[in-house]
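Thread: quick sanity check before group meeting

JM: Hey all, I'm pulling together slides for Thursday and realized we never actually wrote out the predicted structure for the chain we discussed last week. Dropping the sequence here so it's in one place. If anyone has concerns about the input, flag it before I start.
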Amino acid sequence: CHTFDKGGQNRVGPNLWGVVGRERASEQGFNYTAAMKSHPGKWTFEELDKFLTNPRQDIPGTAMTFAGIQRDNQRADVIAYLRTLSDNPVPLPKVAQSPENPKSDAKGGDANGDAKGDSNSDAKGGDTKNDTKGGDTKGAAKGGDTKGGAKAGDKGGAKAGDKGGDTKGGAK
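JM (edit): ok, ran it. Output follows.
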């Protein structure tokens, strides 16, 4: 239905080179429906996401017979691909950092929960208190959970031979 190359022909649908950030209904030589022409504005990431979810619901009267993409991750992949079809791709939007998912915690872990440690913290997986995220009262790594415990042998976790680890795999 569409072509994707620079200077490509219009077919049943318009050529999609440079579509991200382009004004709607603006591809030269394509006969857009009145419905599409009546929706001014640019094809932003958000607008493409709405349209690709269900084109006929987003723009009633569109000639696009495509049913839409229901899965968020698949739509995101399509939009990311469309973004690459440009000599100067539109910058990706910044992702807001949520308070529930800080980049680091007080124990020196990163956003994935991997214990990293720093010069102010000698505990890589546990602390000298009863740490419910992977440590015991001696600071040994106990296996942790999916949000922040250090596991012996995990990437970033406390393990024997690592800086700060003891020979038994416990966090010092």
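AS: nice. The helical segments are 34-37, 45-53, 55-58, 72-84. The chain has a mean pLDDT of 73.
JM: adding both to the slides.
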